[in-house]
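hey m, so remember when u said the tokens were messed up on ur end? i reran from scratch. heres the input so u can diff it against urs
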Amino acid sequence: MPPRWVGPWEVLSVIGRGGVGTVYRARHRRTGDPAAVKLLGPAPAVDSTSARRLAREFEALRALVHPNVVEVYGAGVCEGYSWLAMELVEGLDLRTYLSPMALAASPIHELSPREGEAAAEGAGAGGGPEGPVVAFDLDAWAREPATDANLAQERRAEARGVDDIRAFADLMEEPETAPDDSASWPLRAAPDALAAELSPDPPPPPAALVEELNRPERMARLRSTVAEVLRALDFIHARGFVHRDIKPSNIMVDDGRRARIMDFGLVKSLVDTNALTLSGRVVGTYRYMAPEQAAGGAVDRRADLWSMGVILYELLAGRPPFRAQVPAELWREITEGEPAPLAELNAGVDRRLAAVVRRLLRKDPTERFRTAREALEQMEA
């Protein structure tokens, strides 16, 4: 059963569940304002690393006030469960928003400059287009499991504030990070076993899908949304943070067509000396990891730019650049393989966007764009 109250928030319904807990739709008991409340538990409620990451997520979001970054409202501990309250963004994730079905359900109305400015200033969370919306039928490769494992449960008295979450974590006897061979890279397996488990290469996207991918309405929507995300990333990076888990499901677009970067649970401060990830420990989402991140090395803002390159490739080609379903083989593709040129999969692809993707997906971080703004300027040149 879901809790009735979490801190000052009344729980209304479940939005989603994941490996680190549940996100609820809620409203403030005094003001009635809506919110999304992330509640860790039951398993991670006594995992000190999960609790500290939630505290770090709150602190990062409190410092990242930007129209394309989800807003944070508060945090605390309630009956042994750490929680974080944030802006409720109702809409579509990036992949669904840019799918042909979503375009059909919600035709684009081009905004005038004046309307666009008003939407950027006043857009809030709202409902998405009416009726069911179906994304690209690419579920086989679109699974996005995170790498972290979770531990056990304990209940304590309610407490409010990020310091209480951190104190709650300090009471636990769990280590900063726990070894988890099943979630670490690289995974070892015999070549024959890998070959037997690999999915066959999919055929090139059919002509009908390629035509839909290149529709002017869709491309206008893609350019506008990606530009918003890049501006937000430039803002995040300029303040000394790396997201480390940029992927389509962590980018939401509301019914005012304003994008938000979500889920800062793996955010890393470039000046933080109290790292929550041991050297060689991999956190993130396999398919969108930069090579240096997949190898357990140090990452900076260029790892987020690689992730944007994977997303852009996927949106322009109708399939991801690295397609293996076996984790060890996917790791090899990311660190050593080269994706098929976009023009081979989509003959009508925008050449400027394809060039931006090529540079974003350079194996050597020094060969990528230095900043998100530099990538945006190249895209809009």
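this time it looks ok to me. The chain has a mean pLDDT of 75. if urs says something different then somethings off w ur setup not the seq
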